[in-house]
Amino acid sequence: MEASPRPLELILARNLLASLSTPAFLIDQRGEIAFFNDAAGRVLGRRFEDCGPLPADEWTRLFGPLGEDGEPIRWTDLPLTGPLMRNRPAHAMFPLRSAEGGEHLVEASGLPIMGAGGYRGALVVFWPAEDAA
User: What is the pTM of this model?
Assistant: First the structure.
């Protein structure tokens, strides 16, 4: 089965993310990670080119975000998801896990991506919380 083409808005956002030095990822309307840039790959311990798009249940299992119990939080329950899907920017702090098992407390800000058909996905930038001070 052939994957459906990405909306133009996500293609253009991917081009922007590829040029950012700040860790960032792009999520489509289903919660799949459509792309993450090299800076995000350094934090996550994995390059996008090595893993490709990741369904929501897989990226939350691999990287988190993690709840206080250390278990991954479902993407639909993340503090960024609800506002983004309602066309509102959002900001949150949460721990992520790298591919090597290290944990990073990060701050993240997300911007919804809207198109003619409504919500298309979100662009999320993040950085280590200790860098925010």
Answer: 0.84
